Amino acid sequence: MKKIFLILFVSIVPLFAQTEYVLSDNRVYDFLERMETLHLVKKYNSYEIPKTRNEIAKYLKEVIAKEDKLDDVDKNILGDLKKEFELELYGTLNNSEKLITGDHFDFLCQKEKYLYFVRDSSKNINLFFNSAGLAEGIIGNYLDPSRSIGASVMSYELQVRGTFYDKFGFFWRGGDGVVLGQRDAALFRKDLQYNYKYNTFDKPNSFDITTAGYLTADFGFIKVKFGRDRMNIGYGAVPVIIGSNSNIFDYLYLSVKYKSVNFSYFHGKILGNTTTIYDSTFGTKNIITEKYIGYHRISFNLSNDFNIGVGEIIIYNDRPIDFAYLNPFNIYKTAQNSGKDRDNSMVIFDFNNKTIKGLKIYGVLLIDDVELSKLGSNYWGNQFIYNFGLISDNLYKNLPLTFQFEYVRQDPYVFTNRLPNNNYTNNGYSIGSFMQPNSELFLIQLNYRFTNRLTLSGNFSYYLHGANPLNGDGTVKKNVGGDINLGHREYDSMDAPFLDGDRETTRRFRAKLKYEPIKDVYISGTFTYLSESLQNSVTNKRFETFISFGFVL
Fold first, then answer.
1. What is the pTM of this model?
2. Do 145 and 119 touch, CB atoms closer than 8 A?
3. C-alpha distances in angstroms, 275 versus 118, 169, 195, 248, 292?
């Protein structure tokens, strides 16, 4: 009787629609992917992240209706998520506290915490103000030669989000940070490698939190967003389409969902090649090539357990926005040919299958270029990415352990282009993963949930790369298609065998322990052993240690 009442209650409680998007690193995505694998939510798909708070709440309602099927750890994780998404689920904020004008604010409580929030139910207006702080110690110990480096990183940011009339919303985030210690250690953090402020010599010890902000409108089956935030496109631990390897960028986004058909699209502005010149009057100037990216995908839920999708990507540059690619429903390859072949188009196929309860199998095939008559040969123009993986929660009833395996192969010259500005990069960094063309990756990962607030994850990755052999002065001796910033040239070989060139091998062991003693206050430790054998007989073995303390308030 209690279960029936709970299902009826969840079904009749109206959703208080919040149109803002949940940040891509929120743990709710891992939770929902596990629920998807266990058949506790229907038609959830992790291929494109982030999703709106309203979407997340709909999936959480499905889980709440089946809460008795969860293990004890996930029941407690769901309890935390009920607090975080309380407004969207129940229309209340009883489990939330605010610091400013709050009556009895308690930093040590287990409620959701905010700097301040405003709720006007009569006008369906909700505003939330948050801050986030991070203090991190980084240590690198090199085994050969024996040396140690270290740095401390501290950052603080402000976040503001809100929804008006259940349809329109916004989000803004910005902040600053400071680095104390050795630069080599701080650069173990990927986000500092491409942070412009940190890499500008007049501000050597400070960096900014890359500003994110957007406006959004949610009309149910149609969603529109304009602005910038972090996107992940692709399955698994290493999204091959869009990941966190480069800067975030501005884009216009459209999503249409009707029954079993989903359509998504964005058109974005990215950074092309940079040329620095000196002007005797104005000083140093950066000249950056105009560069754009377009993406669209249609997918079909053939059942609750099987999804397929097909999409396209276009990269073009050195001209204003092209209306052929601004059109969400155009065919990019055809438009590229009509525009006299100045651009770089790619086709993507993907699938997601969880027919076997507790097991999710996924795959992505990207075709950058292909010559059908030369399939099966080493012809350089056949450029594919193969991505296959599985996630297993088959031990769920006995052990709170998730197992994941992933394989990625990137053919020579994939993501490159004969026109350098058309390569698949943003500010010189791959828009997808860290992987270079002419490489493959094997990854095994285990995630163990001791409690809802204490988790341990560990992974091992084995990465092989065929690098372009270099001359003594650093110029390319032979192009084997191993550098994303160098496409095929007229005088390069027509054959490009996989993993040809200077073979590089990277083995990486990583373990991360995260503890959240108080809600929204966490301590984590990440420990990595890296062993690299690079070209020109360069070897690198080191331990990396990250100790972090952070909070959201």
1. 0.92
2. no
3. 47, 38, 17, 21, 18
